[in-house]
Amino acid sequence: MEIQELMDVDFWEMILRTTFTFIVLLILARIMGKKQISQLTFFHYVTGITIGSIAGNIAGESEIPFMNGIVAMIWWAALTLLMSMFSMKSRKARILLDDQPTIIIREGKILEGSLKKTRLTLNDMNMMLREQSIFSITDVYHAILETNGVLSVMKVANQENATKQDVNVGVQTPKYMPSEIIADGKLIKQNLPELKLTEEWVLNELKKQGVGKVEHVLYAELQMNGALHVDLKSEQSLN
Length: 239
Hints:
By secondary structure, this protein is an alpha+beta fold. Helices cover 50% and strands 15% of the residues.
């Protein structure tokens, strides 16, 4: 009988703790605003997870004093708002909390240093471009990695969103799908058979563009028309 009464007490205690925690969390979410909810930056992402974790512990752990947990959650939200206010008034604080956008591609050139700084691989970059329906690096004029991890892309002028039907141009089937041929100075050999290409063909194409070694290439991509786009490593990398 005593065990049953204890279980009933624990049940209703959890119901009350969860209800009050839900209400407080909802109020804090409204106060903190849309920027926090959308987790625009890494800082907001971390604070959002932490507040959610505190709320979960309050609701599910009867050993944690309820008021202590509520105070901790409110204070964490207050600190987040305080730091957001500082970032609005101080550029240095804004950079400290949110970092700055990083240019990954400038005027069609991949910035090797920016990739290293952001710990972004060529595969990661290509995946992010494909998510925006960009399958060829030659379509990109500028690409900027935003503070929330999203890649913003400015296409080259002749790749802006006008369909071939709009300009009455005949539609032709691409000869190839844009594919990686060289990445970080290494030939992607497994891609060659599928494209019906050989290493000799790649070396000849590099020579036509004045490139003597595969190691000098940061990134090379086969275009839809069969041409090879080559992006060389920085001069520092070649020394």
